[in-house]
Amino acid sequence: MSKKWFVLAMVMVMATTLLTGCLSSDKKPAAKPDAAKTETAGKKVIRISIGLNEVHPEYLGLKKFKEEIDKKLPGKYDIQLYANAQLGDDVKTTEAARMGNLEMTGPSSSPLTGIVKELGVFDLPFLFPNTTVAYTVMDGPAGQKLLDLMEAKGLKGLAYWENGFRHLTNSAHEVKTPEDVKGLKIRVMQNPIHLATWKALGANPTPMPFSELFTAMQQKTVDGQENPIPTIYLSKYNEVQKYVTLTGHVYTPHILIISKKVWDGMPKEDQKVFQDAAYVARDYVRKISKEMNDSQTAKLKEAGMTVTVLTPEQQKAFQDAVKSVYAEYTDKIGKDTVESIVAEVKKASAKK
Ligand code: TK8
Asked: Which residue has the CA at smallest separation from atom 1 of ligand 1?
């Protein structure tokens, strides 16, 4: 190839990369109503779109969900699964579900606080001490109450699935103390409480949709991010991040959502099958998440990452640094909600 042609080819490759980069960003079109798609061969089409990839526990949970429905209502529903934010990121798919333009989605609870502010309670740092307590509280009446609040907003929350305890990764240096966080550019979810938490730690947080994160780390637009171990490992963040600190600073769930419009149009018997399937798949997701959390921390190490386990004192330094977030956000979330969830956490933590 002559030099001229080579340069031209390079320019075209770059242009294409830029173009697809743009398309895969926030500007992605939300799911559109598509009459032809609502029924295939007499089956009702249920599209479920999530941000994570096909090997993540959430997607495996969706496969389980689909299996359950196919088994109990054979031939009635065509459940279609979409990974990697194909039909939009969390905010977009949730909006689409509200309008009835998408049947189902499974976002993190955090980007939904613009719709149901009370869900912000789950964003309070260090709220849950462990998964057992988290499950007890979320699956109990206090957690159900929050799901019920979604109905007035056009969303039926079927169940809390596991996203999990979130840990900090970055590409700059090892983090052991809040001082080490100072000045780091950290991508956070689109949620004011996460923003406040990282500001309190002295970081420079930037909210960003999940699908833009890998590229942002690769291009060093951000130094780091925070997510549970399965997301870090299965999304190959080790390729663009060097350090992981097991901060466990917050537990956030995914919420399996069905559009209220779709739900209200379903026969009661089918609603029960969908609800039961959401629970069966939830338990499955929690089980595999645990297995992955246990095994993948070592795999990150093998992949060359420095894994930092905090001492109880170091952990406490992080907790102390973000305490102010509770006072700042309790009224904004709703005092009753925060107090009732905190009371449930205490109760569940006391139980042995
Ligand atoms: C996937 C997200 C992801 C969340 C995030 O769409 O944005 O960091 O943890 O799981 O919901």
From this structure: 51
284 in contact with ligand 1, CB cutoff 6 A: no
Does the C-beta of 51 come closer than 6 Å to ligand 1? yes
**Superfamily per CATH, domain 39-116+127-162+253-291:** Bacterial extracellular solute-binding protein, family 7 (3.40.190.170)
| Average pLDDT over all residues of the chain | 92
How far is residue 235's CA from residue 118's CA, in Å, rounded to a whole number? 30
Q: DSSP for 15-66?
A: HHHHHHHHHTSTTPPPPPP-HHHHEETTEEEEEEE-SS-TTSHHHHHHHHHH
Residue 108: CB within 6 Å of ligand 1? yes
Q: In sequence order, what are the beta bridge partners of 47? A: 80
Where in the chain are the domains? Answer: 39-116+127-162+253-291, 165-252+302-351
Beta-strand ranges (E) seen in the chain are: 39-40, 43-49, 77-82, 104-105, 155-165, 167-170, 185-188, 204-207, 224-227, 243-245, 251-259, 306-308
- What pLDDT, in 10s, does the model give residues 22-42? 334 444 445 554 544 577 789
**Structural contact between residues 186 and 226, judged by C-beta atoms closer than 8 angstroms:** yes
Q: Which of 210, 251, 257, 289 to mutate to test the pocket of ligand 1 (most atoms within 8 A of CB)?
A: 210
Ligand 1 and 234: CB distance under 6 A: no
In angstroms, the first-to-last Cα distance of the chain is: 72
Report the amino acid identity of residue 55: V
Closest ligand 1 atom to residue 107 Cα is 11
Does the Cβ of 162 fall within 6 Å of ligand 1? no
- pLDDT digit string, tens, across residues 261-316: 999 999 999 999 999 999 999 999 999 999 999 999 999 999 999 999 999 999 99
- Non-local CB neighbours of 148 within 8 Å, separated by 6+ positions: 157
114 Cα–ligand 1 center, Å:
16
